[in-house]
Every structure is written in structure tokens, then in C-alpha cells.
Amino acid sequence: MISKTAQGGIESIEGYGRTSWNAQEFKKNLQAFGNNTLGSYTIDGYYGNGYGESVWSLLLLNEDDYIVEQMFEEGKVSEQPEYGYSSAIKVNKNGQPFYPFQIHYQGTDMNDNNRMVKLNKIVPYQYDSKSKFYSKLK
Questions:
Q1: How far is CA 89 from CA 8, 40, 41, 84, in A?
Q2: Looking at the record's lineage, which domain of life comes first (predicted)?
Q3: pLDDT score of 33
Q4: Where are the domains of the chain?
Q5: CB of 15 within 8 A of CB of 46?
Q6: Which residues partner with 59 through β-bridges?
Q7: Structure confidence at residue 13 (pLDDT)
Q8: Could you tell me if 99 and 33 are in contact, meaning their C-beta atoms sit under 8 angstroms apart?
Q9: Could you report the per-residue pLDDT of 27-72, keeping only the tens digit for each?
């Protein structure tokens, strides 16, 4: 593949700094994300003071275009009160230039009223060719 991205890579977004990519995990998750696009994903996050958040870091390798990195919520954990959820990505290979995908969240979370609730939801994402990023389907 040939990329327009300058040598040295791309900066990570959302304040997480540079995402560290493990070669084995990158290879394990590498798959088609479109007709001329390969992609892979890894989990990036932090934990401190009994609370942690993680994000999916998605890297898209577009033939003859720029490398794109985008982040999506992956999960949360807390010790007091004890709750947490995680997620999984599933790509829908449908023949479009950029394939849609979904993130399936499962576990427990705190709602706006500070009550623990079961979480089992699927959030679909579609590529927006104008912004050149994925966005949630409404």
C-alpha cells in the first residue's frame, strides 16, 4: 500500500497522546474496512484512583490516501461503586468504499441518576465521505 501520510505517523486524538500499537494485535485485527482500505484496531486507555476508561483506536490504511486514526469509546471500570462494561467491534463487509461497523457494549454502567443499570447496546457507525471519519448512525 502507498500512503500520503508523512514519515513519522499521525498524532493520536482525544488527548491520549500517541497510541502504542502492538504488532501481533495489529496483525490479528487487520482486515478490510472498504474496497481499497485495510484497517486494524486496538484498545487504548488509562486507569487511576479506582476508575478507568478505554477507547478503541481505529487505524485506516487507505490506498493512495492518508492514514486515518479515529477513537471510539470502548469501556469503563470503577471500584466504588463497582461497575464496568466493555465492547467488541464487528465490521459489515457490504461492498461500499468504506464498510460500516458496529460496537456492541455489555456490562453495567451508572446512569444520570447515579443508579447502576445493565448495559447491552449496539451502536452502528457509517463512514462520512465529507468529514472522512466514521459517525454514529441515527
A1: 27, 11, 9, 17
A2: Bacteria
A3: 96
A4: 23-136
A5: no
A6: 40, 69
A7: 46
A8: yes
A9: 999 999 998 899 999 888 888 888 889 989 999 988 778 888 898 9
Calpha distance 103→95 (Å, rounded)? 19
C-alpha cell at 81: 461503586
Strand ranges (E), 63-100: 68-78, 83-91
Q: Which amino acid is present at 135?
A: S
Which residues touch 29 (CB under 8 Å, ≥6 apart)?
40, 41, 42
Contact between 4 and 71 under an 8 Å Cβ cutoff? The reply is: no
* Residue pLDDT, tens place only, 113-138: 989 999 999 999 999 989 989 999 98
Q: How far apart are CA 36 and CA 65, in angstroms?
A: 10
Question: Contact at 8 Å (CB) between 19 and 69?
Answer: yes
Residue 75 Cα distances to 70, 83, 117, angstroms: 16, 11, 14
> Residue 116 has which C-alpha cell?
447502576
Percentages helix, strand, coil for the chain (3-state, rounded to 5) are 5, 55, 40
